[in-house]
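Pilot study result, target chain (359 residues):
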Amino acid sequence: MRIALSTGGGDAPGLNAVIRAAVLSAVNRGWEVLGIKKGYAGLLGEDEVIPMTAASVRGIAHLGGTILRTTNRGNPFSYPVNLPDGSCVERDRSLEVIENARKLGIDALISIGGDGSLAIADQLCGLGMKIVCVPKTIDNDVAGTVTTFGFDTAVNTALDAIDKLHTTAESHDRVIILEVMGRNAGFIALHSGLAGTADVILIPEIPYDINKVCEKILARGRSGRHFSIVVISEGAFPKGEGPATLGKSLPGQAMRVGGVAERLADEIAEGTGKECRSLVLGHLQRGGQPTSYDRLLAVRFGGAAVRAVADEKWNHMIALQSPHIVTVPLSEVLRAPKRVELDHDTIQTARATGISFGD
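Predicted structure:
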């Protein structure tokens, strides 16, 4: 058996732990393993496909990032191609991926990625490629699994920022707005905000009223608390509007959301008269060593992916359904994205402890 590994989409802490566990699990079965560099670029002649051995993955489990590198503009069904005149067009190169995998003798692929990578894998499976998927996203927006590796690390990074912002906000009687990642899902904002005792949490699932946000901050002032911490997800938006977009940075990329903290700070300053500051945490949430939880989950996912290949669970995704690791058909995973449930006990607890969602 010869299998290949690829990592696609944004990086997340724990990717290297998955790679290590999958390579060692496969090698110990007597299988050969190849690593496809930068998503599918290695299979399209734009990067390398390298042999992977136990030596290749020595000492990488604790490292952030991915030794295979990654890209969020590598969809082989809509692949950016640079033309001689300097322009760029998107072309379907999926059949090249399949043919080049066949030429390399690849029997199966383990694709490690988020919702975009999962959708690509599903399409390739439809063309006959044998793929098992491992979910990866700091946003925790993949259905079918309780959580994804990278999420816990991102939440802890945001929590550390909130803890630090509390001291400076209180010292100056300021309102500080922290913008965190999450795209169209509010899990990072919700979990870090609740754990960090934020005063206002704004998430995409609950469009907010700026007047309600200001009302909460003014009420704190009347009770003698003259500072406030607001955590806002990059995809959050006011009632009657939609998410703020930053546009595509490169061909082949999805529309980006974000840039909401500065606008919110201006609106809160105008509505309350308070001094406001904003901070965009950004890619700090993607970097650094994975937490012990993420590292263990990643190792479990990597080992389970190899077992799924052995069981020929094609077009399935590895998932955590506590306390067990299982496989879920991609058709179920892609049916609908995972979002914060508005009746979830986490939301109920936040409201009960006085946190405002701006509604």
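One observation from the pilot: The radius of gyration is 22 Å. A full batch analysis is planned for the follow-on phase.
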